[in-house]
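HUMAN: Would you supply a protein with fold tokens?

ASSISTANT:
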Amino acid sequence: MKDFNFRTLTRVKYGVGISQTAATLCKQIGGTKAMLLIDKFLLENEAARKIINGFEETGMPYVMFTEIVPEPPAMVVDNVVAFMRNSSCDVCVACGGGSTIDTAKAICMLQTNPGSIKEYLFGGTKKPEKPGVPLICIPTTAGTGAEVSAAAVIDDTEQQKKLSVTDDMIIPPYALLDPTLLMSVPKKVAAATGIDALTHAIESYVGQSANPVGEAFDLYAMKLIADNIRKAVFTDDIEAKGCMLVAAYMAGVGILNCKVAVVHGIAQSIGALAHVPHGQANALILPHSLRKSYVGNPAKFKEVARILGEDVYGLSDLEAAAKAADAIDKLEDDLGMPRHLEEVGVTRDMFPQLIAETMKYRLLSNTPIEVDEKYVEEVLIEAF
């Protein structure tokens, strides 16, 4: 067994209605005024309204910001940083999907570290030196795992790139996992975010940086997703939705410790250039990437195929491993997801830029086999 370091720095509470304790938690950790970052459409959500009511009932001072932008551009993040600073808030609550939580992670870091978010993005000139103000994350989708990760993905619109600030200093210290907030998530969003979580679990499990503890998180996340995603997407079963929420958290711990790989590299390039939501981009690329990568770690891909419901009895590791991509195809078909890049606005003339940007992705080496331009091009052609 190789040496490894494992960390999970977020204190997590799970429960039906647990999000309503956010205001009380703000007080417990010493906050005097909270910044409540919440997606505007959630103001119509009864469960989300109860979070706000909790601030009123406990007398915890707060200001609310609802103008969240999906796939947050750097300029928007800097504007929210100024809003929070001018409001004299010393604690933040983020209620929403991955974009909301990533925005919150960035703005909390910039309350205690000087400069613009662009200076901290990959390739920038600055690194966080101090922990940000305390952040309590309340995810409303079961996918990104942003509530426990060390990265905040930001859209550099000038360069048409998705970049991230990645540092342990931005790992949220608290997360409240409440399945009631998933009850009104549209089916299309639930499917895409669920496949996002599955991509996290698979890439970190089969990757070069995997370690035994991270693998345990990834394996159970895959099992929870395989057993619950269809029911969570198409029914109001709160237990299934809760299982997906926990799976997304566990897969988030997986990527915190074992990293993602080429699927995310290609998906981030697609998202930046064609403005395809991240979970959907992952879903479009995942099966095609697996078909090229499984030879790099057949035993693990066999386990992925088995967990996802494929009959691998009597097959060699290599034969069984090839079925992992088949399982993804079946799952995405069942969920009614787009299966071709051209369906979401990607065109062939984008391929050269997509390939070039993917090759700059810093985690390509975590892929089970070597990734070169030919690999990326073939995946794009197959996904098109």
Remarks:
- The beta strands are 11-14, 34-38, 62-65, 91-96, 135-139, 151-156, 161-166, 174-177.
- The chain has a mean pLDDT of 93.
- The chain has two domains: 11-181, 186-383.
